[in-house]
Amino acid sequence: MVKTFFIPNKQSILGQQEILTAKSVLALVDGLESHSYDAVYLRQPLNRLEYIECGIVGKSQFLFKVRYADAQKGYQVIIPDLITRADWEIVEALLETLSSKVGEAVEGLSDFDLEDYFQETVKNYLADKDARLAFCQGILSTIYFDKKDLESFLEENGLARFEELVKKVQGSDAYPASAKFYPDSEGKVHGIYHLAQGVKTILPKGPVVPVPYVEQLAGKDLVWEIDLVKISGDGSKPEDYEAVARLDYQAFLEALPKELCQDLDANQVEVGPVFGEDFEALANR
Q: Residue 176: pLDDT above 80?
């Protein structure tokens, strides 16, 4: 469920107005940046790009898209199915300034209510009875929530509760671990996470196949593991990092001292930093 707002390009007896460049669109809101194209591409008219993903560093929790639809001869602003009020303020500011620049009204704005949109999105997530976890992609990281979270979002101040969860996950200063995949001679695929000594790390409670690998790994026999990595020297060179143990992932999570873990969301935990005897004990399991 995504929402698209539309601003037709101004028409006159001389034809339609010149299409704005991507750079000109971004300049309509102070601090708005593209997260999908480098600056050199932004000098082109917007219709020469598929779309630009936009946000303001330090304020945005989610990105939204802006594109020019040649077939409809106008600008589209597309928001994701879940956003915060701070994100909506940015989107609304762009819609207003772009509408003023083009000289046409925004279609789909007058009857839009963020709270209603949020509630409908949550209900759609809950309608999937087979899903144990749901997730949304933030500007910095993925945020996971379970049925209990979703139900709480439908209660009073549910949007504020959602915003707190998003900020908690994306505000973490821990390193977000991601699995690397390696096939072995027995036809299995090993998904391996890494935990470096002394580095606070975000790990999943249940391993996750990233979206780009879902089709490639469908039907494969997956083995989830974690490498414990010792750091020597100042950590500036590749040779400063040495994997000293490879452990079964679930067994590793169960062996972690509770005081070294902090839940972030329904499927992510902040681990460490793990030093000294605690690291050696895990490595020697």
A: yes
Q: How many residues does the chain have?
A: 285
Q: CB–CB of 222/188 below 8 Å?
A: yes
150-167: b (≥16 Cβ within 10 Å) or e: beebeeeebbeebbebbe
Measure the CA–CA gap between 51 and 258, rounded to whole angstroms. Answer: 45
Q: How confident is the model at residue 18 (pLDDT cuts 50, 70, 90)?
A: confident
Which residue is associated with the tokens 């001389």?
14
CA distance 4 to 225: 42
pLDDT computed for residue 209 by the predictor: 86
Q: Please tell me the predicted confidence (pLDDT) of residue 14.
A: 64
The dihedral region occupied by 236, where left means phi > 0, alpha psi between -120 and 50, and beta the remainder, is alpha
d(CA 18, CA 225): 55
Cite the DSSP H helix spans in the chain: 22-26, 85-102, 114-127, 147-153, 158-170, 214-217, 249-255, 276-283
* One-letter amino acid for residue 134 of the chain: A
What confidence tens digit (pLDDT) does each residue in 240-277 have? 788 888 999 999 999 888 889 999 999 999 998 988 88
